[in-house]
């Protein structure tokens, strides 16, 4: 229910804007985005159906339908003191999505810890696992307080192998990329969670994840593993003839 409401709120404006753009844009390369969006949606539906058929799909917490209305009290925003309202559907969906992400990332780095060849990279993965566990505890508590299921059934099977299937470079890059995605996740959750205590939790997790991601970038740079992305010209140097 929370996901449906979240998608409805987010996509209504997007649909209006895209409809306007498509009605006025003549460039065929730009109009091609509609086909790309349809293909991505079809792939997402196929993956969901496959997971449902194999019993691997993890369903989010379910809440009963509530009457539609408007917010009239500031209690809706409160979270630190006094009477605190239950989580909204959107807030529940965000907490659960972050729990899912943490669960997948924890399983991944657990395997990476076993096969990493350098101590520095292995320690970085271990630090990632500890951060994930701590943040998962914070998120789970939010659901438990509202009598919602917070346990994600683990479908991950991690072998005992210590033979690295990938290089430390590739594994470190992958974890760094996931950390960047996690920063975006915390930001999205912060934006749609009006309860003040949730905002504080997300802000703390965001700062912690940003620091971790920054340290990962430094590790990539130190080892000469980070490719430089395209950059804007340095006009000052061009003017100086450098």
From TrEMBL:
Name of this chain's protein: Uncharacterized protein
Source species, domain of life: Bacteria
A Pfam family that the UniProt record links to this protein: DUF3231
InterPro entries: DUF3231 (IPR021617), Ferritin-like (IPR012347)
Organism: Paenibacillus mucilaginosus (strain KNP414)
